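Review box. Two proteins, two foldings.
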Amino acid sequence: MTDNETQLPPSIRMLQLLNGFEVSQALFVIAELGVATELLNGPRAVHDLASAVGADADTLGRLIRLLAQDGVFRTSGDTIEITDLGRTLADGPADSLRNVARYFRQTHYAPFGRLIDTARTGDPAAAIFYGKPFFDWVNESPELAELQNNAMAGFTQNARGDLLDVFDLPPGRTVADVGGADGTLLAELLTRYPERSGILFDLPSMVSAGRATMQAAGLDQRVEIVAGDFFDSVPAADVYVLSAVLHDWNNASAGRILNNIATAAPAGARLVVIDIVVPEGDAPHPTKVIDITMLGMLGGRQRSETEWRRLLADAGFTLQRVVAGSGSYFALEAVIA
């Protein structure tokens, strides 16, 4: 919150919060139309910009005016310039979130109209809205499944920051990326650890793109791609990696995944959870917003370090170390107790 915002009357500040859905939709429009991408090469007049992205110039100008107050754009008369913040909605930058914005618009926004039902029943708003579990609904559409893979790969890579530089993977010949989607993370890990082999494990619809990922990285001879359901069983491995997986599930479901890993793991195997650790207290933190995303879409949750320790202990694991990087993700290393 800025100093100016803290000086506003409470009713005006509350009105700003209530109107947050309009800001979200404006950002979704900018991402979907590719406005930020068009501005990467320099400032543009709003009429020229609107023509390039297929938008009404007056409407686009008003959306830009709204978002400029939050630092997404800079305006000078009729000329629009993108900021570093706005560049995250463009294709190309390493910290791009354009696919995340497009994914949220198509999958997340409408179900949150049912958050009141979640508050009353505990059931995910998305399951109520779509009439089935969210991932089941997404996987019915190859286009949405691909967008989800692309969005989550970009998001988790940004959220990790330099975590893989400061965290040394525990020893073990075979690394299983459980719930590894298209294998982006596993490819990066095996590139860093050339003496190891890997297993990419996820639902058939999720790992279908994994072979291309491994071939592009020159790793197809070192990776076994296994389709399956981690609620049923997982392959044997020396090191298990769960990256941005357990936050999708409530404690009971997350415990089933961990129990299956404990059952399959040989003696001495290690577990590495790459996920968010929510700070204690009332201070603002973006992970607290992501926690509500998990609640509304999946019935999942983000966890504090205390909650992580409890979850792992209930499944028979001992948390040995927690390593922070420059992003919002941590590495939590555990062994079977």
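Next protein.
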Amino acid sequence: MTFPRTDPSEIAAGLVDLLDLREVAPSGEFSTPATVAAYQGDSSPHPGGHVFGGQVMGQAVTAVGRTVSAERRIHSMYSYFLAPGDPAHPIRFQVDALRDGGSFSVRRVLATQPGKEADEEERTILAMTASFQESQDGLEHQERAPEAPDPEGLPTTAEALAGIDHPVARYWATQRPIDIRHVTDPIYLRPDPASDTADAQMVWMRTLAPVEAEPLLHDAILAFASDYTPFEPILRRQGLSWMTPGLKMATINHAIWWHQHVSANEWLLYVQRSPSASGGRGLTHGQVFDRSGDLVATVTQEGMIRTRQKG
């Protein structure tokens, strides 16, 4: 795998370009009476030969957000991942307007790509429903962030993987547009030695370098970044690492609730735990806090997770 960029500012700016979709004509195959717009986006290289799920989800947030007024910000979204994306083809996002009320708007978007074979129909790789709301006053309460060391004193991914000559490790260390710093020891290469008692993990995250982008794209970046580490609490509890032989994982669904809207340029603390794993699936719950300790988002993800059976 060759990497086109090495400068952090270029990598972060490339994320904004990736999420900033171009408008295209709606496709008749997927059009409904509620269709209001369609957009198209490209993909960036990613280990494994498929499209990173967070990318498709972030682009879908941009697509639905383009169809509502700027005064209405996304407050929730629910995504189903239906098929792996092919980075060799652009992704089309077709948006349906399900509701426009006095203060809420609801949108549905299908992310599609050409079929694998020449005669195969366009296939859907992601389906998302999202709701938007105008800013309103109301009741307020929130959980506060747990105690955590400052991110500046924690090792970067590049430092955690220093000396590891592996294409995936090089990608994680040099190409991810999100700076991720583990409060709990990272499990890139080896299991958590405290897996018997590890019921949660914490990471700090922000863009690799500051970006200039409209508020909608900062919401899309949060969706993008939220998909990097949700499997890790499951791996921790099971005494596994990303390098466990025979490990297979894929996201099934992913939901986010925005409680406040923040800049992706600022450090966010992502606190995650896994309440359940069963039937070849694992569930994780995450809370995202800003630097002042305010809860800004809640995330849940369910994924398929399998290991090679012994014997």
